[in-house]
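note to self — DONT lose this again. spent like an hour looking for the file last time. sequence + predicted structure for the chain T wanted, 230 res
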Amino acid sequence: MDHDDDAAAPEARTSGTRQSQTYDGLRSLLLSGSIAPGTRLTEADLTRMFDVSRSTMRSVLVRLTQEGYVTSEVNRGVRTRSFSVEEAANILEARETLESALAGKAAERATPEEIEDMRHTLQDMEEVKARGDQDAYSGGNRRFHQQIKSASHQTTLARAYDTLLYPLVMRQYRNLSAQHPRSGSLEEHQAIFLAIVTRNPDAAVAAMRHHVGSARRALLLDTSPVAPVV
């Protein structure tokens, strides 16, 4: 047995784990919407933030670039992704279709434990909304949607949904002057939950489509055709 290979194996595994953890951390940071579109990301700042080597961070940024979370251009470096109106509209349309399907599957397949988790999340959302805690409400909103995805037990749909960059689109086109949470948001979540509890896939699909469509329409996203000049 080659003892040098044995010694190198744990080191390689540790390096791979560190890279995976850094990827997950930076991806979550990007999806949180806390970094504005078009912001330049420097390797030096990111390596300090995540306490990793430059080579590790470089690999992470290459992967995130390939997956569309950031862009990389000569002389401009790596920047957070920004979207044209057409790109944003296409992504949000895909989200509406996929998440509606996931809700329908959750109505068919959610376990009693998963339903209880959703119920608790909605209760938390109601409480923090009453307190006016916008950040906590947003966190509950994300958790509720993730719980539905998990309760669908449909991995192919879930993987497709996970590739969508809609949180970045929402961050770029959100209306900062609008009320948050949006009027009707909690009631829409409750309607989705009721459809899942009563095992009504068609109602779950319709309720989710209405909810996601309402969120899309609240964005500053003008997709109306421009009248031709005559």
